[in-house]
Amino acid sequence: MSHVLVPLPRRAAALVPVLPLVAVVVLLALPPTGDGAGPADVVSALVVGYCVIRLLRERRRPLSPRAAVVLGLPVVGLALAAMGADSTAAGIGGMCRYLQVFVLIPAAVLVLLRGRADFRVLAWSFVGLALWQGAVGVHQYVTGTGASYRGETIRAVGTFGAQDVMGMATAVSLGLVCAAGLALGRAPLRQRAAAAACALVLVLPLALSFSRGAWIATALTCSVQLALAGLRRALKAGAAVVAAGVILTGGFGVGTAMLQERIDSITEVTDSPDQSVTDRYTLWAAAAGMWREHPLTGVGLKGFPEYRDGHATLALSSGSDIEGAGETYRKQALLSPHSMYLLVLSEQGLVGLLTLAGSWLALLVCAVRGLLRVRGRGPGLDCALIACGLLVWQLTDFVYGDIGGPSTVLTALALGLTAWWALPRDERLDAACRDGVPGRLEEAVAR
Fold this sequence. Notes:
Blueprint: H1 2-5, H2 7-14, H3 19-27, H4 39-58, H5 65-72, H6 74-83, H7 88-112, H8 116-143, E1 147-149, E2 152-155, H9 165-183, H10 189-208, H11 212-229, H12 231-251, H13 257-265, H14 275-293, H15 304-311, E3 320-324, E4 327-332, H16 340-374, H17 381-397, H18 408-422, H19 427-435, H20 438-446
Antiparallel strand pairs: 1-2, 3-4
């Protein structure tokens, strides 16, 4: 009897290194506490500090040279943009935020994750968060307690509230991408079936988020994952998605007039755009104008709000309406161009965009190379599909979205998962993790 119980504490102990990262994801399930740093942001900072102390105590190199170069590349553009900021406080604050999201948290994920098992635990935590936020969002739609949309409080926003309408859409989308990767891998049938069921369930709250950007990014990412997984899996998954769509629109009545109108508006952004699209075009033009005046280093970190009115036309509205989901009606100022690429271009110039986008492109190339090595055989296919999918989703979403709000921490963790797959600590560990040879893995870790 005793020999049956002994492995349980060992399995629990094996999860200890990844638990701080899981805790960050779990804290994103809580409602926001205010305008300052939320619990997830605070804990993510503590996780980074813990990694630094741990590395100093163990006296070991935290990252491989390749990982240090790829993750450290954005620091060049950030430093130049911080020096060009209108105030020292704005420059330091903006630089700390960018470093947190694109450098420090991804590096912490690289340090803490020790193998594919830890990777999958963190990926499943993404799925769990998506299911929780999705359940809250569906309840908001059904009961009419969500954020305001076209005069009705039906928009699903989860616990993120009306002031962060993209928060739930981001969490659900990333969870769906993780679930799709897990379902398309080579795990036992029960796990793949559970992941596939989670992915299908998450389609409903994603639809009720009314986020056109999240729809496009998720559809594109899942298509890429299916193509990389193989034709047979793609056909099976496509049939399942079609069946789910029929059930949702027919059986549950999700195909409401508002949802159909929102879908149709995706193709009407040039013919008869609504005010939100007009505002976005105006903000994009303002960001481009800032870049033309400061092409190399931009206007400085946190500088877009200060320069916006000098470059925007009269078509820009006074702000977006915020109401519902516990919020009273108010106007929220439009303080960013709602495009990460244009935000970086306007505030950091070509130097900032090339260094930041160059880091993302290097991650994508390395992640795809790793996926191609395991697609024919190997137990890491699910990790590869998740890593590539998360980065493809993020790069697509950055076309019409940027960082901001509590869900930004989730973006940082997603980049960390991609970096873990794309940038192993050394080549021996790379081969051991991907080939799944136990002896080689212990030897690589020991070295």
